[in-house]
Amino acid sequence: MNIRHEYTVIIVTHNMQQASRISDKTAFLLNGDLVEFSKTEKMFIHPDDEKTSDYLNGKFG
């Protein structure tokens, strides 16, 4: 049985390594606003929003 197809688990973390390792999809929120939501692999390699890229590259946060 693969519970991935039956349940949704939401994890909130500031640890980017953990997020990239355990999630299928990732949301990036900044000051309470949703900046970006996409497949985790895509977001960590080619984010659509410059704010997401800046955060992932340590420019702030």
Helix-strand layout with pairing:
Blueprint: H1 16-22, E1 25-30, E2 33-39, H2 40-45, H3 50-56
Antiparallel strand pairs: 1-2
Primary descriptors:
alpha+beta, 61 residues, two-stranded antiparallel sheet, 33% helix
Task: Provide a descriptive summary of the structure in words.
The protein is α+β, with helices and mostly antiparallel strands and 61 residues long. Helix content is 33%, strand content 21%. The protein is built from three helices and two strands. It has helices at 16-22, 40-45, 50-56; strands at residues 25-30, 33-39. Strands 1-2 form a two-stranded antiparallel ribbon. The radius of gyration is 12 Å and the shape is elongated. The mean pLDDT is 92.
